[in-house]
Model the fold of this input.
Amino acid sequence: MKPLRWVGLRTASGAGILLASFLLLLPFPAWAALGDNAASVLTDQARMKGTLHSTDNRTYVLHEITMSSGAKVREFVTPGGAVFGVAWEGQFPPNFELLLGAYYQQAQQAAEQRAATQTQPDGVPVRRGRGPLVIQTPGLVLNQTGHMRSFHGVAYVPQLVPQGVQASEIR
Done:
């Protein structure tokens, strides 16, 4: 399985993937994956050696873990206990394979499809610098922006978002 890439498109052979494979090697810790259960939040807190602050918003519970580096991960959990959204901010982008869990392959396919359609009329791949990563499919929404030492983003599963919760609340 090829990792998602977050690099600019340079050649036709490199255009198949948008998220950087280096993301899998960066020292940003693992946390609950989309669709995972609420019990994983405490495991995440222990792995990250961070402080946990939870807020019950009636339609979902927000678990925010703050690490000593200042990086934050927010996990949005349905009343039924499923992680429906994750938001992050920190010096490095997250490990998408761990973050997205079962939705990782869907994001990878969407990124490959997006890259394949980004060509000029003469068939030459569009040169793309570093910029926001946006994946919007019926089963997954992922947005990330920033630059080295200042990344932030969100990922959520539209079908898991509780009724009455707006996607803009996942931040």
In short: Residues 5-30 have pLDDT under 50 and may be disordered. The two ends are 30 Å apart (CA to CA).
